[in-house]
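Subject: two folds for Thursday's group meeting

Dear M.,

Sorry for the delay on this. The cluster queue was jammed most of the week, so I only got both jobs back this morning. I'm pasting them in the order they finished. Each block is the input sequence followed by the predicted C-alpha cells. Could you check whether the formatting survives your parser before we put anything on slides? The first protein is the one we discussed after the seminar.
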Amino acid sequence: MARVTTNYRCTECGWSSIKWVGRCGECQAWGTVVDQAETVGLASRSVTPVKISDARSARPITEIGAESVAHWPSGIAEFDRVLGGGIVPGAAILLSGEPGVGKSTLLLEVASRAAATGQRVLYVSAEESVSQVRLRAQRTNALQPTLYLAAETDLATILGQIDQVDPQLVIVDSVQTVSSSMSDGLAGGPSQVKEVASTLIRVSKDRNLPVLLVGHVTKDGSIAGPRLLEHLVDVVLQFEGDRQTALRFVRAHKNRFGPTDEVGCFEMTGDGIAEVADPSGLFLSRARLPVSGTCVTIAVEGRRALPVEVQALIVKSGAPQPRRVVNGVDGSRVAMLLAVLERRAGMKLSEVDVYVSTVGGIRVTEPGADLAIALAIASAFADKAFPITQAAVGEISLAGEVRSASSAKQRITEARRLGFTTFIDSEAVHLREALRQAFASSTVERVDVPQF
C-alpha cells in the first residue's frame, strides 16, 4: 500500500521542505511554501511508448531547412524595434509594468494599429468594463471596426470568444485577473496563473495566433506569480517609467525571436501614447551655460546611441554617516567610484553628502558611464564646470584605470553628430589623466584647478 506524507513545496522554484517555513530557502520568496500531499510507495505507473509516424519522426539536423521567422509590423516602430522587427505569429508575449505606467494604453494602441490594417483583434479586459475601454479608445483615437472588446474573467468564456471572433491577435489584460474552473484557488494565485497562462499559450501555438499578456509586478519590480510564467512565454517585455514624468521605456528581458538589448522610447500625452523616434535631446538639460557637477555620456541601448547627462551635487554633511542618494544609476557603482576618487585622485569625499542623478528619468547601468559619473562628482567637488560640448565614456577599474567601452565608434559618431567637440575616453589611461583633460578644457573658473 502506498502511504501519503505531507510535504511542503515552493510554488516559485520547486524547493521542498519537511516542515512549513514562511520564506523559501532557495529563491528567498515569502509566502510561496505551501502544503502539498505526495504519494510515496512502490507502485508506479509506466508510460507506454507511442508509435511515431513518418511525418513526425526525427531527422538529421542537416536535412532540416532553415526557415526564417516572419514578423508582421504592429504599426508602432519603437515597439517593433524591441520585439526584433514585429510580432511573430504564434508568439506569446508578456508585458509587465507598475500600475498606472500605461500598459493598457500601449496595448490598446497596438490593437488599434493592427486593426487598422484589416486584421481582427480581440482585446479582453479582465479589469475594466467594455465601456471604460471604449472611452479610452475614443480619447486616444483608437476606434476601429475590426477591434473587438470583451470584459471577461473566466478562461472558458475567453476561449469561447476566441472561437467566435477568430482573431489574428489576442490581448489579455491581465493574466493575473483571469481564473479557470479547472484549477483551485483565487485568481492571481500560483496555480491559477499557471493554468491560465498554459492554456492561452497552448491555444496560441495550435492556432498560430499571437497572444499579448499583461502581467502585474510586485513591490520589488519583478513579475508577480510563479517564475514558470516567464519560462512559458516567448517574449518578456518590461514597461518602465515614472508616473510623474511623461517618458516611458520598453525593454526586452527575454526574446526568442530577436535581441534583448533594444529599448523603445515613448511619451505619454493627453491623446494617448506617442513613440519617440529620436530621443537624443530628452536626456540633456536645457541649460545654455555650463554648470558645475554635470557631465554627458553616450550610452548604447541595443543599436541606438543616446546622450545622457549625469548630474552630481556635493553638500557638506552634518551627520555622522554621510548620505549617498542616487537616481537613474547603480548605487553600488557610485559607491565604488567614490572610493576610487578618494583613493586614486585624492578627493576627500567621505565627509560630504553625494547626490547623483540622470536627466529625463532614464536608467543607465552600463560600465561605460563610470567616467561621466566620476567627472560629474569631481566637477561638483571642485565647483568647476565643464564645457557643454564635452562628453566622456569609459569604464573605471579599482586601480583607477580608464578602460574602453563597447561600440566606441558608434558612440563617437553620435557625439560628433550632436555637436560634442571634446570626447574623453580610454585614451586617458588613468583617472587622474582624464580629470586633467576635463579640467584643462574648462572655461568657467570659480576655484583653482585641483591638482590630481
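Second protein, same layout:
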Amino acid sequence: MSLLDRWTRGEHTADGTTHPTYRQGQGPGVVVVHEIPGLTDKVLAFGQEVVDAGFTVVLPELFGEAGRPMSPAYAARSLGRVCVSREFTTLATGETTPVAGWLRSLARELHAELGGPGVGALGMCFTGGFALAMMVDPVVAAPVLAQPSVPFPVGRRRSADLNLSPADLATVRQRAAGGCQVLGLRYRQDVAVGRRFETLTRELGDAFLRVEFEGRQHSTLTEHRQQEGVDRVLAFFEEKLRA
C-alpha cells in the first residue's frame, strides 16, 4: 500500500474552480497545503503524522501529481506551471494570492462539518504564506507558515512582502491583536524566505511565534525535516483546536 492509498480522494469547488482533495483522520480539522512540486511522499508522510496526532486532515492538490516523488525535473515543471497560472502570484507585492479564496472556502466547509474552535491551516514553501491569507477568515484558528517563499525574494521589497493585500493585512493584524497567534518555521539562512519573518514580527508583534533552525536548508517539515519543528506544529494545533 502506498502512502496515498490511505487517503480518501474528493474535490472542492469554489467560485467556479475545482481542485482534488485527499482526506483522512478524525478530530479537529487541519488543511495542509503542499509545497512545490506537489503532494510528494514526504508531504503525505507529514500529513499522516498530523492524522496520527488526532486530527482530520485535508490535503488540497493545487498542482503537481499526487504521490509522485520529488525530483529536480518534476520541481522545475511544477514551478513553470504555477508561474503562469492565474491562481497564484509570484512577483507582485501587496497582493493576496487568488487561490486564497478557494482555500478559505475549503476551510469553512471543513469547520461547518466538524465544528470546534476552528481549523488549522499550514502552508509550506511556495504556499507558506497561504495560511496567513486563510487567516483572514475567522474559522482559521491555527495558521502555520513553514518557510514562506512568495513573492520570490527578488529585491528587498519582495523579500519582505507577505503576499497579502493591504485590506487582508489589516484583517490579519486585527485578528492577531485579538489573540490569534501565527506559528512560523524556517532555517535562519534560507534565502527563499527573505526578510518575511522580520515583517511578520513587526506587523504581528508577540502574536508571531518564530521557530528558527540554524543553517541554509529549506523544507523544515519534509525534505530537510526538523523533528522539533514537527513537534511544535502538532503542539500548536493541539493547543488551538481542541475545544
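Two things I noticed about the second structure. Helices lie at 41-52, 72-84, 100-114, 130-134, 156-160, 166-177, 196-204, 227-241. The chain has a mean pLDDT of 96.

Cheers,
T.
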